[in-house]
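Follow-up to my earlier ticket, as requested here are the two runs.
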Amino acid sequence: MATKKSRKLKKADKALTAAEKVLAKAEKKRDAILAREKAKLDKKLDREAKRDRAKAKDAKKKSSAAPAAKPAAKVAAPAAATAPAPSKATPAPASTPAFSASNTVAELREAAKANGVVGYSSKTKAELLEALK
């Protein structure tokens, strides 16, 4: 009887050893996969960081170049602003066209939208014409 138990015990030990080997192999495989995925993520993060640094460098170049151009425009603006002021007031009435029944509803709605008419999308052609007068 002792031999039967020892044989069963030896079989169980062999099965346990085999299971431990399979487990160790699976853990190695898992570790290899994790290492590969970590390397991929590290590369991706490096690329993104490099791209972000390049964007920041470009933005810095643009911001440092932009102030140099702005003062020149400010100097020229006051001289130009004094002369055209009267002409700016006169074109405004001429630029608002008169609307009639020959205009389409789409044209009237577009004009109403531009003029800030509230509820223009649900108004009829007659209501749009009245609102645009």
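Run two:
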Amino acid sequence: MDNGQTSQTMMVTLMSTWQLQEAKSRFSELVKQAVSDGPQDITVRGEAVAVLLSRADYLHLTRPKPRFLDFMQQSPFQDDDLASLQRDPSLTREVDL
């Protein structure tokens, strides 16, 4: 993103914000909006205290992450002979600081 915001920051700014009392009284609407529009921010006295996620978003965030070894073993380059790669023996270049 060219404005310097991370995707996490962008998600926070795109979330709808609900005051706790409003969230309690309109809970069905809050849940439907979480499913259709993404996470919903809940505040108490103006301070963000909770986020309501759809089940799909929750499962996506909590899915098991593959181990690095498993990831490497599933690489399409697994059968390539990487041992034949040679390091460039030349000296490092001079840099003026």
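The only thing I checked on run two: The chain has one domain: 7-74. Let me know what else you need.
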